[in-house]
Every structure is written in C-alpha cells, then in structure tokens.
Specification:
about 450 residues, alpha+beta, Triger factor/SurA peptide-binding fold, Chitinase A, domain 3, 4-stranded antiparallel β-sheet, elongated
Length: about 450
Amino acid sequence: MRCLSTSVVALGLMTFSLGVQPAAAQVASPAASAPPPPSSAPPLADQAPGGLSESVVVTVNDDLVSTYDIVQRMRLLIVTAGIQPTDQNLPDIQREAIRSLVDERLEMQELRDQGKTQKFDLVASDEDVDGEIASIARSNNTSATQLLAQLAAQGVGAQTFRDQLRAEISWRGWIRGRYGQRLVIGDDQIKAYQKRLDAEAGKPQYDIGEVFLDASRAGGQTAAEQGAEQLISQLQKGAPFAAVARQFSNSPSAANGGDVGWISTGEMAPEVDRVLESLRPGQLSGPVPVKDGVYIILLKDRRAGGSSTIVRLKQVAVALAPTATPQDVAAAQATLMAIQPKLQGCDNVEAVAAKTPGVVAGDLGEADTKDLAPAFRSVVDTLQPGQVSAPVRTDAGLHLIAVCDRHQGGANQMTRDQIEDRLYGQELSMIAKRQLRDLRNSATIESR
C-alpha cells in the first residue's frame, strides 16, 4: 500500500472557517444532550470550495475518492466534532478525512464482495440509514429534517452524512452477524476478569473519557502528538469531548463518545495511570504518549476504592420458635444434618428440600457480608463458593447456608452479565480492527 498524500487538497475550507460554531457541531453527535441553537454561520455552497474540481485524489482498489469527497468529509468532521478549523489543525483534519474515506471504501468493497458470495445484501438500506438519522436527531431534541438542514447550512451535503452512517451501520452489523454468534466468552475469562476486579477493589477508581490517536494511522508518533495538541486546543475552546472522540479517536470507545466508565489503577497504560493521579474531576489532560500512540484523558470523577465482600446465598431451613424445646431443636438438627451431604452447593438446594417434609428452601440473593445477621456472618465468612454450613440457629429456626458466589464489592462492582458484555464488546472490536487492518494491507491505495 502506498502512502497517502495529505497535501493534495489546498482547502477552500478556510472560506467558511469562522462560521462553524461548536454549539452547532453537537447536532450530529449522539452523545450531545442539548439541542443545537440556530447556526450563526453564513450559508455555505455544497460544492468543492476554492475552485476545486471533482478530480480524483485517491484510488482505493477500483474506487475513487475525489477532492469534493475529501472537502465534504472535512466539513462533516469539523461540524460534528465542534471544532474551529485553523491553519494548524487543517492538515490533521484532512488526514483524518482521507483515512476515514479510505477505510469506508475498503469496508464497503468487502461487504459487497461478501454479499455476492453469500447472495445476500450486507449493505444497510436507506431505511436503516433513515432510522439512524432519526435516532441521532432524537438524542439532540430535534427532527431528522432539521438536523439535515443544520448540516446543509454548514455546507455538509446530506449524502455525505448518509454515506458515513451507511458504512458504519453496515460494517458493525456484518462484524456482529459474522462473528458474534461464534464468539463465546468462557467462564474462565469471566472469573479471571472478576478476580482482577477483586484485587483492585481497594485501589482508587476513575471515571474517564478517552481520545486515542494511533501513531500508525496518524503518520507516526510525532504526528499523533501534534494532532493531540490540536484537539486539546479545540476541546479547551468548547468542542464537545464526546463528539471529538467519536470522530477522531481510534479506540473502540469512540463509538460511545470516548466513554470508558470506571477503571482502577493498572487497567490503562502506566503513563495514563500517572496522569490520572494528578488530575482533578472535570480536568482534561495534556497529550499522554504511550508506546503506540497518544491519549487525551478527561477525568469525569474519582472515588476511593471499596473493600466490601458480596455473597450470594441460598438456605435450607426448618422453622422453630425461639421457645422451641431442646427435643424439637435436636430433631430439626438431625433432619438438616441428613440433608447436608446431599447438597451440591447451590445447584440442587430447592430439589433436595422439596423431598423432605417440614423443610423449606429459599434464595437469599446477594448481600454485603457486613449487612448479614451476626449468626449468618460468622458462618459465611468461613465458607467458599459451593460450600454449605452446619446448622445455624436463629430466632426464626435452624438453617443450612449455601454460598453460591463471593466477590469483592464496592463502587466498582460489576455483575457477571456486565463483565460478559464488556468482554464480548472488546472481542468484537478487536476482530473489526483486525479485519480492517488486513483489508488495508492487501489493498492497492494510491494518491494522485
């Protein structure tokens, strides 16, 4: 693959650079929560500016990318990310526009080829794109018609916006459809993740957003650092972080506006950990170079780590009044002691109890051990998952306690389903990234 030239478009974009306002940029960002105010920008012609003709700039296999395509994509990036174009950041915006257009050409080529093989259309329909536009519009408290009109007022053609969405929807749907059903997150993966969470439960935790610029895609580490500087400058001027992340970040979190959620020390690169320690909630980092690129980190919130222990319990019990005779207590104890060897952890509690008259079973759910009744807590603290206690006397009766699960709680507690969903998303993102990398490596891409 030949390197792409980023000097091929002289950019009449500067003819409208002072008219693009960060507030208007929020219209195309699903992460934006407020409707954009009417644009104060002057009307922009929906054509290649500065006298540029629709000449071919890049060929991607047999597909063409023209100057018009690049300028339109640059305008879309500027508007949706809420940034102000300057002499300093235009080269970075141009490079990102070309990169995204090339990637989308490759994705659409692959989808059409796969569709011919499978005799099934893998490209998102007009109705799918309309639905995505309507969803984005709703998230900005506006209508699809108004959203497209606001983009048009900034010189962004409706087809440019639709083409970007069509490629995104189609590629995401194909990756999930082809690999999603075959992708299985095993118990060992979930347990390993939970174990790591438990080990980190006492560490400080950070709620962060990220923009990651991949050095290999930015043209080298120096270019990535310069690009990060430009984006930070725009963020400091009011560009919405989520919108910038969505358009410029090379991390899988870009799809969520850069939202990573709560993490603990050790989950990110050591360079990022050191920066997190020095940030205050609401503060934006400077460029954070790592071995393969550069991060921009937004610290949304921080909190101290928790160290509570969460257990999930079931019980088998015989009801006894506090005034029960020693003979009654002894009879109940004998019944439960006969049942105990038959219990296989929590798996057959209900089935075993149902076969013994006078015995009831119950799911006690999850609880922090410190919130358990003293009699229960003293026993549960000594048990591991799958173990069953000896009979425990309370004012309500006599109980066998089975520990189904035990894990560290605190503020970063995640359920099994949440862990599985996170690992599943990470795996799919890695697959999509590898697929695109392979397409890029095998493609013929030339600049003119």
